[in-house]
Amino acid sequence: MAEAAERIETETASLGREIAGRDHRLTGQLRVTSSDTLASRLVTGHFARFRQMHPGIVVELTVDNRVLSLSRREADIALRPARPREGDLFGRKLADIAWAVYGAPALLTSRSPFENPAKLADMPMIGWSADANGIPASEWLAALVTPTAWVYRSNSLVNQFMAAKAGIGLAVLPCYLADPDSELQRAIAAPISELMRELWIVTHSDLRRTARVRAFFDVVGDGLASERALFAGEYPRLGSHPGVVAAGI
């Protein structure tokens, strides 16, 4: 019975995608999923432009750091910090995502930026919850700092960002999140090469020709791609990169 139910669910989802894939109307609902950091910093401005261009499309954003299933229609489009591995997905790379170590200016004072990450070993550090597994930035930090250096932990990257701004300690953050903020500065000048990731916009292959999906790829996908330099950590100071709305992207 379980196998039959699973088969019915799969076939129903496939039929739903096939029907949606033939929809040429620029109206209706579009379900999008994104991480909390991307949602809090960048995508809303691009969603506003998408709304102006396509007022008949209602965007429903699910902010979730998990990888939602596009095959089961948990979302129509995903903005993911990794190359998709499922064979039935369609997407394109938008940018490289750089990470760096940040802290409040009062905490770093004249000691930064450091050239060698080893200098951070005894600095007060903000990290993930102790039970966090498979997070590259967490593993990088754990191999670098001493056990007594941890002063704060959180399973939310946005909360780590706020804790770093409050001066609790240093945090490893995506450059697009931290670089535009004048209340943070880099503890190490260069991004961490081992933590470089990719930003992808992804949909199911059956939906790639849907009018709503194509429009989203063109407006939001191209808009995010135009900010490659910010994602790559090439604008380290506030005001040195174009604003989302001001640049008209």
UniProtKB/TrEMBL annotation:
InterPro entries per the UniProt record, alphabetical: LysR-type_TF_proteobact-type (IPR058163), LysR_subst-bd (IPR005119)
Annotated protein name in UniProt: LysR substrate-binding domain-containing protein
Record SUPFAM superfamilies: Periplasmic binding protein-like II
Family listed: Belongs to the LysR transcriptional regulatory family.
UniProt lineage: Bacteria, Pseudomonadati, Pseudomonadota, Alphaproteobacteria, Rhodospirillales
Residue intervals of the LysR substrate-binding domain: 25-223
